[in-house]
Amino acid sequence: MPTVVDCPTCGKKVEWSEKNKYRPFCSERCKQIDLGAWAEEKYTIPGGAPTDPLDDPLDEGKQ
Ligand SMILES: [Zn+2]
Question: Looking at residue 9, what is its pLDDT?
Answer without folding.
Answer: 94
